[in-house]
Specification:
With about 375 residues, the chain is an alpha/beta fold. It has 12 helices and 13 strands. The strands form 2 sheets. Strands 3-2-1-4-5-6-7 form a 7-stranded parallel sheet, sandwiched between helices. A 6-stranded parallel sheet has the order 10-9-8-11-12-13, with helices on both faces. Helix 1 packs across helix 12 and helix 3 packs across helix 4. The longest helix has 18 residues.
Length: about 375
């Protein structure tokens, strides 16, 4: 039985539950999705158009809003791990949403239960169609069970959501493509976007580093990054530090180049320190739903060098330096250009990107989408 008030009149504040229970900094594979989830919840907590916001959370996450006000209610659960994670995904989250008694449940990771239907109105924020992309391009990139599990959850998001929120027009088109492949009818899809905030001012430091983002996931093309950056280093004899952030794929060895340093994962303070000393950030990828690191680099005063994809063109709108993955010369030209880019130009890009990607506007679009799809 649905817990909803079908007679709610337009303009009545939303009663909304958001589940964050299954997200933790220490264990997440997708820090970007964790940051988006927290940013969206903060923006919703600030909106007067949300009358009641129940956050299903765990002890590892920061507190959001002002719970004592009565508008924001925190319901803390133990962060699920291993088989308990499957139980939470398929049963626990819907039980908790029923207890919360709100009209809507929003799942900011975009993967709803596929074994049962939601007892309230369901909204999902779908960041990408990565399970389908891996099925097509990297069929051995996920363990078999995970591949089945997340593909089933993605199909459930399309088939059972009242509304789907997405980050870009590119992701909206991808969802439509997946729906057509599986013969599913899509609910309304709203491009809510992702918001960013200008980082706090820090004392200026000499910018002598290049940061390269690495990943174990094959679509991040760390193999090409190692090959291209090593060739560039040999040709240009760059004297500063080249800092690789992330874990390498198991089959790749980190070369013993004197000014190269590998950081498997950095705490936020350490990451911000590196960004404050970096002149360029390099970001390889074959596929993204949004691609946050180039935006974050610009906001930190760093010129990003990133793979030229339809989605990065949509997000960056001309900011930064892009390159084609299939040509070393393209990467070399983009990196050379980034190192020549004046700080004033990066600051101009930052202003443009902040005007385009605001959390308040993201929350407003999300609320509008839920209100429009409420009946």
């Amino acid at each position: 039985m649905l817990i909803m008030n079908e007679s709610r009149t337009p303009g009545t504040p939303l009663a909304l539950t958001v589940s964050l229970v299954d997200q933790q900094f220490a264990r997440t594979k997708t820090l970007g999705i964790l940051n988006v989830s927290l940013g969206l919840c903060r923006a919703l907590a600030r909106s007067p158009k949300v009358g009641r916001l129940t956050l299903l959370t765990n002890a590892s996450l920061p507190r959001i809003g002002q719970p004592d006000s009565g508008r924001v209610v925190l319901a803390e659960y133990a962060a699920p791990e291993r088989f308990r994670r499957v139980w939470w995904d398929q049963i626990g989250v819907y039980r908790a949403s029923r207890r919360a008694g709100n009209e809507w449940l929003l799942l900011p990771k975009g993967y709803p239960p596929f074994l049962r239907r939601c007892p309230v109105k369901l909204a999902t924020y779908v960041h990408d169609v990565m399970p389908e992309y891996y099925r097509e391009h990297y069929p051995r990139g996920f363990p078999r069970f995970e591949n089945y599990y997340f593909r089933a959850a993605l199909r459930a998001a399309i088939a059972r959501s009242r509304v789907i929120l997405v980050n870009t027009e590119c992701t909206a088109r991808e969802i439509q493509r997946v729906a057509e492949r599986h013969g599913l009818n899509t609910p309304p899809i709203k491009v809510a976007g992702i918001g960013f905030e200008r980082p706090p001012e820090t004392p200026p430091q000499p910018r002598t580093r290049i940061i390269v983002l690495a990943s174990q996931w094959p679509h991040k093309r760390t193999d090409l990054a190692l090959q291209y950056v090593a060739r560039w280093q040999e040709q240009r004899r760059f004297a500063g530090s080249i800092d690789w952030v992330g874990r390498l794929p198991a089959e790749l060895a980190f070369p013993g180049i004197a000014n190269w340093h590998l950081h498997s994962r950095l705490a936020p303070d350490e990451w911000n320190r590196l960004l404050g000393e970096a002149q360029a950030l390099i970001y390889f990828s074959d596929y993204e739903g949004f691609g946050m690191p180039p935006v974050e680099a610009v906001l930190a005063g760093v010129c990003p060098v990133f793979s030229d994809l339809p989605v990065t063109r949509e997000v960056m709108q001309g900011a930064g330096c892009c390159f084609a993955n299939d040509r070393y010369e393209a990467l070399a030209a983009a990196l050379d250009e980034a190192l020549r880019t004046p700080e004033q130009r990066v600051r101009q890009w930052a202003d443009q990107l902040l005007a385009r990607h605001q959390w308040a506007a993201v929350a407003e679009r999300a609320i509008q989408a839920l209100n429009s799809s409420g009946s």
